[in-house]
Design goal:
This is DUF2188 domain-containing protein. The chain crosses the membrane at residues 78-102. It comes from Microbacterium jejuense. Helices cover 36% and strands 35% of the residues. The protein is an alpha+beta fold. The chain has two domains: 1-72; 73-103. It has a six-stranded antiparallel beta sheet, covered by helices on one side. Strand 2 and strand 3 form a beta hairpin. The chain is elongated.
Length: 103
């Protein structure tokens, strides 16, 4: 088990654990942010459901997970947040109109 500090923000420390042989899990403050597992001849680095790549060395796979931005949300999360905010706004507007009509 090793511990790596993220380069851009010292408050985000990635802690690596190896729950099983051939598998490593990265977490930040108890939240899993990435994983590396050993395939037949390569190490596969993932973050969430997204595969970051296949690497010949363990260090390269761990670095791929470590050095990916931990503070910038992925684009699909930004779209989800935007669409959620729009939907909440629509529901609030409908509730306001319904309240005005019922008075």
């Amino acid at each position: 088990m090793s511990q790596h500090a993220h380069d851009t923000d010292p408050g985000w420390t990635v802690r690596w654990t190896s729950p099983e042989r051939g598998e490593w899990t990265a977490d930040v403050h108890g939240m899993v942010v990435g994983e590396v597992h050993r395939d037949a001849d390569r190490y596969i680095a993932t973050r969430g459901s997204r595969t970051l790549g296949r690497y010949h060395s363990l260090d390269a796979a761990l670095d791929a997970v470590d050095h990916r931005s931990l503070t910038t949300p992925e684009p699909n999360r930004l779209w989800t947040l935007l669409l959620t905010m729009i939907n909440v706004g629509i529901v609030a507007a409908i509730a306001l109109v319904a309240t005005m009509m019922l008075r």
